[in-house]
Design goal:
Annexin V, domain 1, 20 helices, homodimer, about 70% helix, mainly alpha, 4 domains
């Protein structure tokens, strides 16, 4: 469920474009006016505003924003303005260039978007970077991470609800054998995680829990410092309970030493129109504090106002 | 270039559907009438005929054809009637069920179709088989074939003409090292073949030839009996010179002991609207005999008539 609030009567996109143009005019910039518009328009409406802006003023709205704004506020507004597939292609490309440190971002995009949305991201990647997403991921990653990441970004998973219980049982057994044998980059384990539908995987993990006494994630904690095992646990979480994965990502971004604004922005901006309501509920439950309260305590200025507008008011949700 | 001949004035699809309905009526079937219509309608027109037939008679044209025809003629007409993405999904699924013997068919579909067409095949696979193509390929193949086939069917290659010559040179070197070291299922070699654009691969193979004295395919002939090496050579051919790959497939289908009707039908039906003209030219050059002559000598009856109608008349081409 989304947290984005769009007013009942949205003005025509030409009017929004005009207001933005005025907000940029003269000395200084009317940041509040910018937030007031952008934080309350959905993806289709934001696209129309970009088009109306280009038609009326012959300028790319993104370029104008870059001139007027700065820092975390700029980054958040730019990401929000991009079309979702373009945005994910951008985030993936940025992560690829930062190499192994950012494998999680690529995995998150590959595992939490719908199959068709992932395909649209691959199309946007062609258009923006003149390469394929899997080509860059394969080239810039190595070892076990590559073995898992390339099929994850290349997947076009079946999305029906059908579950084959006999298969779930037999594949739970394969997973248990591999994990017990510390063969967590084994090709059978990777085949199962990267090709089966999410419904099928859910059944397989339930079988695992029922027959082997532990949740699969618990068995993958054998060595809590092993980076690949941590990555594998995050992958399983993204595939089965994305809201829990995102709750943890937000928690780490907010409660660490300093704030990880990149992670905070990424989760809020990519999820505000999708699943942020559920993520807020998870956050409240796990941290005994609302996400609104946590974000307000860790951010400031226009950046804070914008994130809070996307997260939604405290008394309204969770 | 296609060999399909469509008349200047194509009758409305309702009229074609009616003629087909009449061809099925009473005792016996008017096979010639069926060939006369089907062999001279393009994909969009065949689709309209299927729709018009369902609307007028409440029956699926494919089911009706199954009742009326048989053998190789039936198989050819059925495959031809399917929409291209559905047809490729069907051929891939059929090949998957026959396991390793048919890896070539899956590779051929993955490597010779455009990136977007391959995606449409993956969508059709979801719709027809309630699974993903890569899921079935990964489950039913093993070893080196699996390592190569899964990324081949999952690829969404970039299709621009841009070539990075420095990269081509460095990747030609990697390929040469792996092949010299007999590591032909090495993950770097597979990464290059399965993720780079066809234009980039072509440049890489040229660099290989220029710097290491042999065409890459020649170096992959070290052990001519090795099935995986043969598969790798066929993959490279499909990616760079599909008409040569298809010429050889036709040659083996026709000149072997008996005729391989499945391969013959598959190539003619899938290529008649795409590239069969170029394949015919290759065939003539390599065999000193036209494809029309070869097909006529190896087939008979309605099946022969239908294939020849798709291949085009002798004096017209090649």
């Amino acid at each position: 469920m989304a947290t984005l609030k769009v007013p009942a009567n949205v003005p025509p996109s030409e009017e929004d474009a005009e207001k933005l143009h005025k907000a940029f005019a003269g000395w200084g910039t009317d940041e509040e006016g910018i937030v007031g518009i952008f934080a309350h328009r959905n993806g289709a409406q934001r696209k129309l505003i970009r088009e109306a802006y280009a038609a009326a003023y012959g300028e790319d709205l993104l370029k104008e924003l870059e001139k007027e704004l700065s820092g975390d506020f700029l980054r958040a507004i730019l990401l929000w303005t991009l079309d979702p597939a373009e945005r994910d292609a951008y985030l993936a490309n940025e992560a690829i260039k930062k190499l192994t440190a950012s494998n999680l971002v690529i995995m998150e995009i590959a595992c939490t978007r719908s199959s068709y949305d992932l395909f649209k991201i691959r199309q946007a990647y062609h258009a923006c970077y003149k390469k394929s997403l899997e080509e860059d991921v394969a080239y810039y990653t190595t070892g076990d991470f590559r073995k898992l990441l390339v099929p994850l970004v290349s997947a076009f998973r079946y999305e029906g609800d059908e579950v084959d219980m006999i298969l779930a049982k037999s594949e739970a057994k394969i997973l248990h054998e591999k994990i017990s044998g510390k063969a967590c980059a084994d090709e059978e384990l990777i085949r199962i995680l990267t090709t089966r539908s999410k419904a099928q995987l859910n059944a397989t993990f339930n079988q695992y829990n029922d027959h082997f006494g532990n949740a699969i994630s618990k068995d993958l904690k054998a060595d809590p410092k092993d980076e690949y095992l941590r990555f594998l646990r995050a992958t399983i979480k993204c595939l089965t309970s994305p809201e829990k994965y995102y709750e943890k990502t937000l928690r780490l971004a907010i409660t660490g030493l300093g704030t990880d604004e990149w992670a905070l922005t990424r989760v809020v901006v990519t999820q505000a129109e999708v699943n942020l309501q559920r993520i807020k509920e998870e956050y409240h439950k796990r941290n005994s504090m609302t996400l609104v309260h946590a974000v307000a305590g860790d951010t400031s200025g226009d950046y804070e106002k914008f994130l809070l507008a996307l997260v939604g008011k405290e008394n309204e949700h969770a």
